[in-house]
């Protein structure tokens, strides 16, 4: 913007050399009076321009003085700042420019006036938007805080109520009452369990929270209640009939191998395996487990070097229940190709009798199934 103005003014300065040329031409005896006259008109024009220039000289010097500073620096930030300052100077230059002595057409004048008011309009708009943006930003921060404290409140509430309800659900008559009188509430509850459990594992599978975490306690409470609901025949029947219930069972199977090694995951896995065991007690439930490839999860659990004896026993119990009286060739094939039979054979000589007995039964059931398919 300032570049073109400078070039234009420098061009005018060059015009003053015409005065010397005029003298030279006048002194040349061969020059015609017509040539001298043409030069005189040029000189008159130049003089009127000189008047304009004198009035702007002050501003111009200021303007030119700044230029080396603008280009002297490589710092882009400083430069853009200087350009801004420079823009102001150009503006001042225009303001002081004696418009009356310049041949500016009316159209141009109008255009400048329009642009100026437009510019002022935009400036006001920018100021307004900047203010609005700042206010919106403060509002976002405030709402973030509010959401955080509300979610902390909800989770604490859930953890406390979960703890109490889990204790209550230990009494079979309470679960019976729920199922016979408040079945729709159990449906709503399973819908919440299905959503919460998935979100919890997704959030924490890479960095599991400590057992003191309220979200962890909340999820533990939910799973504990489902475990006790599934302990009764009516409870597991409802669990595998309700769509939220079946989706939750599928999540148990799918997400268990994804849980990291952490103090809290052992208790969580124990509840998960108990639910799977209880569900396998129902024929429909057992078929659902086999359709969902429960053998992948059990194989992972048995192969896991970090698995405790208790965890191994729980896995063997589910496997025992799943392999009992298998008759569908598809399921037999899936189990035999997935379950580490050699490992279970080693377990048959474990010190703990409950482990060795469970392992012996699993081996027996698997061998029996193998015979059927041959
Ligand atoms: C005088 O003018 C003539 C024609 O305009 C030109 O050819 C000649 O070189 C000029 N002489 C001087 C000394 O400028
Ligand atoms: C001003 O400009 C117009 C056209 O742009 C031209 O016709 C007129 O002669 C100019 N006047 C002067 C004093 O130069
Ligand atoms: C309930 O909370 C207590 C104390 O926080 C804890 O020791 C216990 O394991 C919890 N029990 C259940 C069933 O959630
Ligand atoms: C309820 O679940 C707990 C484990 O969460 C278990 O120890 C208890 O035996 C269960 N009660 C019934 C009636 O199944
Ligand atoms: C199963 O749970 C859903 C909520 O996900 C509920 O709307 C539905 O009524 C329940 N089904 C039965 C049979 O209770
Ligand atoms: C179901 O799970 C509970 C633990 O919550 C357990 O006490 C019970 O023995 C399990 N099995 C059956 C068939 O109920
Ligand atoms: C298993 O659940 C189905 C419903 O899914 C039910 O019809 C059946 O009676 C249940 N069987 C047992 C043994 O509880
Ligand atoms: C179960 O939870 C998942 C999210 O983890 C959700 O997409 C799905 O709709 C839920 N299903 C039911 C029946 O509630």
TrEMBL record:
Q: Establish whether keyword Metal-binding is in the entry.
A: no
UniProt keywords (A-Z) are:
Coiled coil, Signal, Stress response
- What start and end residues bound the annotated signal peptide? 1-15
Q: Does the keyword Signal apply?
A: yes
Q: Which residues form a coiled coil?
A: 112-146
Q: Name one GO cellular component term.
A: cytosol
PANTHER family named among the record's database cross-references: HEAT SHOCK FACTOR 2-BINDING PROTEIN
What is this protein's name?
Answer: Heat shock factor 2-binding protein
- State the organism named in the record: Acromyrmex echinatior (Panamanian leafcutter ant)
């Amino acid at each position: 913007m300032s570049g073109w103005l400078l070039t234009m003014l420098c061009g005018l300065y060059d015009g003053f050399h015409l005065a010397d040329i005029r003298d030279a031409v006048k002194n040349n005896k061969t020059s015609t009076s017509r040539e001298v006259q043409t030069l005189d008109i040029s000189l008159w024009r130049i003089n009127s321009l000189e008047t304009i220039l004198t009035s702007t000289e002050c501003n111009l010097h200021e303007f030119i003085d700044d230029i080396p500073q603008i280009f002297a620096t490589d710092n882009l930030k400083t430069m853009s700042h200087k350009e801004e300052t420079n823009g102001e100077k150009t503006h001042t230059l225009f303001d002081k420019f004696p418009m009356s002595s310049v041949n500016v057409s009316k159209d141009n004048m109008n255009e400048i006036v329009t642009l100026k008011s437009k510019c002022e309009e935009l400036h006001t708009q920018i100021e307004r938007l900047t203010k609005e943006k700042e206010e919106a930003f403060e509002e976002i921060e405030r709402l973030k805080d509010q959401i955080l404290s509300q979610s902390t409140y909800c989770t604490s509430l859930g953890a406390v109520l979960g703890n109490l309800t889990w204790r209550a659900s230990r009494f079979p008559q309470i679960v019976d009452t729920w199922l016979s009188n408040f079945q729709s509430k159990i449906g709503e509850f399973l819908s919440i369990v299905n959503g919460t459990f998935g979100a919890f594992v997704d959030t924490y599978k890479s960095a599991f929270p400590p057992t003191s975490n309220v979200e962890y306690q909340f999820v533990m409470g939910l799973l504990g209640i489902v475990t006790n609901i599934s302990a009764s025949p009516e409870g597991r029947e409802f669990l595998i009939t309700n769509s939220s219930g079946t989706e939750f069972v599928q999540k148990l199977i799918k997400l268990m191998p994804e849980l990291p090694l952490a103090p809290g995951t052992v208790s969580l896995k124990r509840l998960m395996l108990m639910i799977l065991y209880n569900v396998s007690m129902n024929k429909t439930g057992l078929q659902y487990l086999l359709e969902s490839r429960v053998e992948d999860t059990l194989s992972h659990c048995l192969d896991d070097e970090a698995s405790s004896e208790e965890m191994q026993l729980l896995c063997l119990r589910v496997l025992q229940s799943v392999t009992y009286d298998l008759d569908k060739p598809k399921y037999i094939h899936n189990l035999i190709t997935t379950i580490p039979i050699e490992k279970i054979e080693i377990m048959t000589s474990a010190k703990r009798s409950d482990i060795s007995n469970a392992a012996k039964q699993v081996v027996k059931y698997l061998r029996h199934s193998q015979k059927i398919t041959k």
